[in-house]
Amino acid sequence: MDPGNRPARLAVGVVGTGRVGPALGAALQLAGHRVVAASGVSTASRRRAEKLLPGVRLVTPPQVMAAADLVLLTVPDDALADLVAGLAATGAVRPGQLLVHTSGAHGFAVLEPATRAGALPLALHPAMTFAGTSVDVSRLAGCPFGVTAPEELRPVAEALVVEMGGEPEWVPEEVRPLYHTALAHGANHLVTLVAQAQELLRAAGVAEPGRMLGPLLGAALDNALRSGDGALTGPVARGDAGTVRQHLAQLRRVSPQALEAYRAMARATADRALDNGMLSADAAAALLDVLADGRKDA
Fold it and tell me: Considering the entire predicted model, what is its pTM?
């Protein structure tokens, strides 16, 4: 790191001690900063703070603001705007105070009420799922962060990410919602997909679905990240309409919920295979006909 861009040792506050805030606070402490105060509401969040930030006093959000040079706002996306507006309206924001939120859905514009009061706004989103335990701190090593900030604060934002062990990826303010949409679509829907696949394997008599899916899905993810659409395999990519019809019949019998997910993903897969020349127009038409006509599922 360029020493000129390295932030001075800061007093850090954490508003919102869910899964993310305590882990980032702990990472900043490892980098030499000092977490001086935190705020959490639920019993679980307070216990999490006590475990990951031992000895740090738990106080109200205005008291966190008063004690810290750098404040992490690690609250749910939909709560962020009201929190910032409330802190600014009550005079809790100090000029020159670094105000960092970790929401993937927002850039730094959501911090505008605090910016008008003199705060320095940063949006630093770790592209990782958090368990709420100490293992999250070690997982930050090499973790990509979506970084959005005014241009003059870019060096500070990127330096803080590096100090937490992450790798900064600049995301312009105007595309921040699209950035978050991509991550949510990939990560959140992947969990649903895996859970449905496990349920179907249990229904098929497989005692430990995770052991069967782990190598397969791990290889599929690795291939997809390396090769994109070139990693497509299976009956849809091959144009096996008869097999797809059989799959639909089984899903209709066992899991109507998974049936609709399968239909949607199979249509999307067929479209991508067609666009990439892996599937002929005739084969794609036959597949889409099977997927569209529910009477052929029986």
Answer: 0.87
